[in-house]
UniProtKB/TrEMBL annotation:
KW Cell cycle (keyword) present: no
Species of origin: Heyndrickxia acidicola
Gene name of the record: glmS
Stated name of the protein: Glutamine--fructose-6-phosphate aminotransferase [isomerizing]
UniProt cross-references to InterPro entries, sorted A to Z: GATase_2_dom, GFAT, GFAT_N, GlmS/AgaS_SIS, GlmS/FrlB_SIS, Ntn_hydrolases_N, SIS_dom, SIS_dom_sf
Record domain Glutamine amidotransferase type-2: where: 2-218
Top-level EC class as recorded in UniProt: transferase
Record field: transmembrane: none
Superkingdom to which the source organism belongs: Bacteria
């Protein structure tokens, strides 16, 4: 995933482009670049590294002053994060200047054709075919030329394009990949995401497939590929700047961890009655489908969203007594077994832009499967495509490591499990009253857990001190949570953390347990407690350093471990949310104490728009 920005107006473009890019660097931060026009000529600057590095370069060696330009921050997909592969990308004579997010799927075919025509390629990117095609088909008018070339490009991408022959124009394109036009006072913007525009304008138009945005001094035109002008229905952004500001936190990750009680309140708002669950966004789903008639229910996602899906699977299949499957999106796209309209696909994606997950949606639709999306972006790509969408309403999540996305996704999956159980009169019906009662308390319990964890984080964090690797173990829902805890430690503290089913350690991995090896043992599932305690004793018999995460009052666990992290007790199905808090804060602590940029971990991006 990368970030694109554009600006045209009465102010100096460079500071505005750089400021907008800093709000998009969660989309990728391997390199950054800008192209600025003073209406006579265009100059470019690109640097590897973060936006700050580009800014420093421009301070030391300024480029021309201008009121029009485009910018880009990159997550390297095709081609290493080098200056050559940094955007903007041009043809060899720099006649066309392009910034690109997404993937040109047919770039190799286009590239070999262009090479056979004598075009010289200098980058490893898929993007580079675009400026060369624009040269090949140049009509002398950049808008007309873009309209000719666009149908040749296959894939999902957003583009901003400038032409040296028309230095007063910026073209914006969106094909299955977000690009927004922002309307200011005698100025206009392009951005991959609302976040970058909030301090400049709240009046936007998301460019749709088949549209072209043409920005010129004093005018913005939205046109069809055929060239007909469209009058866009401008939309006012609902989010507030505060949603995106750090406030008094050091990092977005900590802010978003601490926001979870409020985020969970928003997730539950209007969906919990005294005795039941209501999800009006699924009214038409239940009119058209009988859940008990589905032969397969498959939960598909990536990363942390996949881990929340695993929690949902375990809860849903127990309550419905129907087997629920899970699949990593990238695997589902290539292997999924028999699919048809009797297979319900639940697709989870915080960003709604993850290419693997969008491809999984396409695959599901190829077989006529109904799809329900669980996403944090009510107007994201996934929400636009899915048959039904449940929004987590968690508010913007800008740290690359997902935290409130995880706990709010699980909460939606619990609500869905309850609704499905009621619709099918599943065996889990008798658990619904307790779940409802405790869901009402959930934000408060999470608040309590945040306080308890912060008070005990020093002891808890000993498990990661001076360590490069550690294990997490658990049974049932605790095992699935251990997978998420391990991912957090990998992403944020670059630790080699591995999660194992507690009962599985003795079948091989125990060979790695030597005195002092750190293990986090999750024991929050009462009905599995005895067996988990046996597994902890097996580890202690080999002098592992074990930190237990268990519910207040469970003295048996605290007696056999080296350190214990107590958390409030809740319904077993809600414990993965409660117990996620210490694991999130542990990762945050372990990453910051090592001096890492926890919001922007190396090699990662908030959502990957390439497969
Ligand atoms: C990864 C992110 O790129 O994508 C993870 O680093 C995230 O934090 C995963 O969980 C899935 O993203 P999404 O937006 O589809 O939930």
């Amino acid at each position: 995933m990368s970030g694109i920005v554009g600006y045209i107006g009465n102010s100096s473009a460079q500071p505005i482009l750089l400021d907008c890019l800093t709000h998009l660097d969660y989309r990728g931060y391997d390199s950054a670049g800008v192209a600025i026009s003073n209406l006579e000529k265009i100059e470019l600057r690109k640097e590897t590294g973060r936006i700050e590095d580009l800014d420093a370069s421009l301070q030391i060696d300024p480029i021309l002053e201008g009121h029009l330009g485009i910018g880009h921050t990159r997550w390297a997909s095709h081609g290493a994060p080098t200056i050559l592969n940094a955007h903007p990308i041009t043809d060899e004579k720099e006649r066309f200047i392009v910034v690109h997010n997404g993937i040109i799927e047919n770039y190799l075919k286009l590239k070999s054709h262009l090479i056979s025509q004598g075009y010289l390629f200098v980058t490893d990117t898929d993007t580079e075919v675009i400026p060369h095609l624009l040269v090949e088909y140049d009509t002398g008018d950049v808008e007309e030329t873009v309209r000719k070339v666009l149908p040749m490009l296959k894939g999902s991408f957003a583009l901003a394009i400038m032409s040296r022959n028309q230095p007063d124009t910026i073209i914006g394109i969106s094909q299955e990949n977000p690009l927004i036009v922002g309307f200011g006072n005698n100025e206009a913007f392009l951005s991959s995401d609302i976040a970058a525009l909030l301090s400049y304008t709240k009046e936007i138009h998301p460019i749709k497939n088949g549209e072209i945005a043409v920005l010129r001094p004093g005018e913005v035109k939205i046109k069809t590929i055929a060239g007909d002008t469209i009058h866009p229905k401008k939309r006012i952004i609902e989010w507030h700047e505060d949603d995106f500001s750090l406030q008094d936190y050091d990092h977005y990750m900590l802010k978003e961890i601490m926001e979870q009680p409020a985020a969970l309140k928003n997730t539950l708002k209007g969906r919990l009655t005294e005795t039941g669950v209501q999800l009006p966004e699924l009214d038409s789903f239940f009119e058209e489908h009988d859940v008990s008639q589905f032969r397969r229910i498959i939960i598909v996602a990536n990363g942390t969203s996949y881990h929340s899906g695993l929690i949902g699977k375990k809860v849903m299949e127990t309550m419905l007594d129907i087997p629920i499957e899970t699949a990593v999106s990238s695997e589902f796209c290539c292997e999924h077994g028999p699919l048809n309209e009797k297979a319900l696909i639940l697709i989870i994606s915080q960003s709604g832009e993850t290419a693997d997950t969008l491809s999984a949606w396409s695959e599901a639709k190829r077989y006529g499967c109904p799809t329900i999306a669980i996403t944090n972006k009510r107007r994201g790509n996934l929400a636009r495509k899915a048959d039904y969408t449940i929004c987590t309403n968690a508010g913007p999540e800008l740290a690359v490591p997902a935290t409130k996305a995880y706990t709010t996704q699980i909460t939606v999956l619990l609500l869905l499990s309850i609704l499905f159980t009621e619709k099918t009169q599943g065996p889990g019906l008798n658990r619904v009253p307790d779940m409802i009662k405790e869901l009402h308390q959930l934000p408060e319990e999470v608040d309590k857990t945040l306080i308890m964890t912060q008070d005990a984080i020093d002891q808890f964090a000993q498990v990661t001190e001076d360590q490069q690797s550690l294990f997490l173990i658990g049974r049932g829902l605790d095992y699935v949570l251990a997978l998420e805890g391990a991912l957090k430690l990998q992403e944020v503290a670059y630790l080699h953390a591995d999660a194992y089913a507690a009962g599985e350690m003795k079948h091989g991995t125990m060979a790695l347990i030597t005195p002092g090896v750190p293990v986090i043992a999750l024991s929050t599932q009462k009905h599995l407690r005895e067996k988990t305690i046996n597994n902890i004793k097996e580890l202690k018999a080999r002098d592992a350093f074990v930190v237990g995460v268990t519910t207040i009052g469970d003295d048996e666990v605290s007696e056999i471990v080296d350190e214990v992290m107590y958390i409030p007790e809740a319904h077993p199905y809600l414990m993965p949310i409660i117990a996620a808090i210490p694991l999130q804060l542990l990762a945050y602590y372990a990453g910051t104490v090592r001096g890492y940029n926890v919001d922007r971990p190396r090699n990662l991006a908030k959502s990957l728009t390439v497969e």
